[in-house]
Amino acid sequence: MSHFPSHLLAEQLYQQHQHWLRLWLNRRLNNHSEAADLAQDTFMRILLMPELSSSNLENEPLREPRAYLATVARRVLLNHFRRASLERAWLDALALMPEAEAPSPEQQALIADALNEVDAMLNGLSPIVREVFVLSQVEGLTYAEIAEQLDIGLRSVKRYMAQAMAECIVLASSYQGSI
After folding, report:
1. pLDDT digits (tens, 9 = 90+) for 74-116
2. What does pTM read for this prediction?
3. Fewer CB within 10 Å, N- or C-terminus of the chain?
4. Handedness of CA 124, 130, 133, 138 (dihedral sign)
């Protein structure tokens, strides 16, 4: 692949490989419309990637564009499956609620959006920070119990929780700004 600014590279990738990518995704999803949507999401993600800046591409152009597309598409696909799983769990929880206590459709949409945001935030954490956060906030373990279970020091647990909480604060402030 030759040297192009990032938007031209994305355009070239799209023109030369979008059909292949849709087929690749369709083999994994067995759904043409979802495959087309996720192919578009893949190309949008590529357009927004800082590593595709023209200065980086001048130093090392893409040698295996389909392998690169497949790597980016796998991340998009994993996010898609994770969101679908989260949505199924939310719908299952709603189905178990008495109708009188169920949130309104507007509240349901806000809650679903918030769950997706939290999921994305957790996905952005390092594995150890995510595990410490989930053990504390979801499983209800104390910091000492987490330290023992993960065989790490109490100071590390506190540091990891501080990192996770800082991400939560950033998420909460961005979520507040969008309402």
Report:
1. 989 988 888 888 788 888 888 888 888 888 889 888 888 888 8
2. 0.61
3. C
4. positive
| Pick from 90, 91, 164, 89: nearest CA to 132 | 164
Of 18, 28, 32, nearest to 65 by C-alpha is 18
Nearest C-alpha neighbor of 77 from the set 21, 125, 15, 6 = 21
End-to-end Cα spacing for the chain: 43
Quote the CA–CA distance of 144 and 135 in Å, as a whole number: 11
Instruction: Give the whole-angstrom CA distance, residue 179 versus residue 175.
Output: 7
Dig out the tokens for 135 from the structure: 């053990």
Q: Which two tokens stand for residue 106?
A: 């507007």
Q: What is the DSSP letter of 139?
A: S
**pLDDT tens profile 122-173:** 877 888 998 999 889 878 899 999 999 999 999 999 999 999 888 878 877 7
CA dihedral 154→156→162→165, nearest 10 degrees, is -90
CATH says 103-179 is which class? mainly alpha
- Measured torsion, CA atoms of residues 165, 169, 175, 177, in degrees rounded to the nearest 10: 180
CA 93 to chain CA mean position, Å: 22
